[in-house]
Amino acid sequence: xxxxxxxxxxxxxxxxxxxxxxxxxxxxxxxxxxxxxxxxxxxxxxxxxxxxxxxxxxxxxxxxxxxxxxxxxxxxxxxxxxxxxxxxxxxxxxxxxxxxxxxxxxxxxxxxxxxxxxxxxxxxxxxxxxxxxxxxxxxxxxxxxxxxxxxxxxxxxxxxxxxxxxxxxxxxxxxxxxxxxxxxxxxxxxxxxxxxxxxxxxxxxxxxxxxxxxxxxxxxxxxxxxxxxxxxxxxxxxxxxxxxxxxxxxxxxxxxxxxxxxxxxxxxxxxxxxxxxxxxxxxxxxxxxxxxxxxxxxxxxxxxxxxxxxxxxx
Length: 314
Ligand code: ADP
Ligand code: MG
Description:
The protein has 13 helices and 13 strands. The protein is an alpha/beta fold.
């Protein structure tokens, strides 16, 4: 392709909201063999909503939600926002809540006086959060977090979590004073176009893959829904780049599509890194392509553009 053709293609991309950082990136995309998608915020809308809050030890529901929200208040994770929103709603808009305080209604999102004081907060990547309330350890996160901390998950709670996972939801488990106390169910629906894009890639001879830090149960259910067979789950943030490398081993050209801070090493390692425009700045910086419309169809647009610009046969 002539430099003019590359310039024209870059312009066509930009007009469609596909920002391409340089001619090399544009050229590499024609040969892509694997497209690895991050799950949360990339294949899914990244808008987590709490569907369920199940208390298992007889603790008052409001008390349970206050504990969980207090732990998540210091977290930057997208899940944290959803949990806080849910707990706040329960306290300020639910008739059955005893903690409801009429003085603060209407402005509840500003008011954080209902949260408990926490100390020793830490965010544990790929696991959840840990802190101390009333001198007791509070854990909010996945199975890995609880088991690694020596907390036993009762069988009936485990069954409930599996049920959530089978319907593509994620269970967030909670332990207080190292005793299991309850579960929150989180749903994050697929983007409308996700399944069509996956099928479209396959028609182009490209193999779709999904990678996620989420658990295997949820990952399998989401992958099935979107039509992806090749799944890597429970991948710690540092491991996503290793997944990219494993697909590059035989010389295959690999594209990675992601939105999170977690995804940036993988975006940088891939032959073609594609960041979702609504994603974090770190991801956008690490990528070769930015999909400004946040629409996965633009993964296909980008590859098509490269093929049309560089293939000899038109
Ligand atoms: P992803 O690849 O889905 O972005 P992360 O590595 O951010 O995954 O998180 C993996 C898993 O760790 C989440 O699915 C969740 O179960 C758990 N987790 C992480 N952060 C939190 C948090 N702040 N609260 C509860 N659970 C969390
Ligand atoms: Mg993500």
